[in-house]
Amino acid sequence: MTRSKPTLLKLALAVCLSAFLLGCAGPKITPKNYVKILNGMTMEDVKDILGEPTRSQTTGVGDSLSTEARWKNSSSGATLKLNFLNNKVKSKIFNQK
User: Tens digit of pLDDT for each residue in 73-93?
Assistant: First the structure.
């Protein structure tokens, strides 16, 4: 079975687009995005900028919830650690290797 040139071209474009989109996925740990993270932002606000955290742990005492979330970019080695209190950013640490 042979495929026509337009079909092969469409297939090649779909593969290239998929590879591009996969390359954009994952945590976006950059100095530019680090400065966008402000105290008082919610986890959802942060996820809009950085994507899903690599690791997250929440503990609670009484009415207070404390969350430590970490984002790691495996290709660059950069990490970002955020501490949330009741779903609001309280502190942040950026480490760029």
Answer: 988 899 999 999 999 999 999
pTM: 0.70
Q: Round to whole Å and give the CA distance between 96 and 60.
A: 30
Which is nearest to 34 in space by CA: 97, 78, 84?
A: 78
- Whole-angstrom CA distances from 49 to 22, 34, 80, 81 are 17, 9, 12, 14
Q: What is the pLDDT of residues 21-46, one digit of tens each?
A: 444 444 599 999 999 999 999 999 99
The rounded distance, in Å, linking the Cα atoms of 60 and 66 is 6
Check residue 61 and report its DSSP letter.
Answer: E
Domains of the chain: 27-95 (3.30.1450.10)
**SS percent in the chain: helix, strand, coil, step 5:** 35, 30, 35
Given a contact cutoff of 8 angstroms between Cβ atoms, the answer to whether 70 and 50 are in contact is no
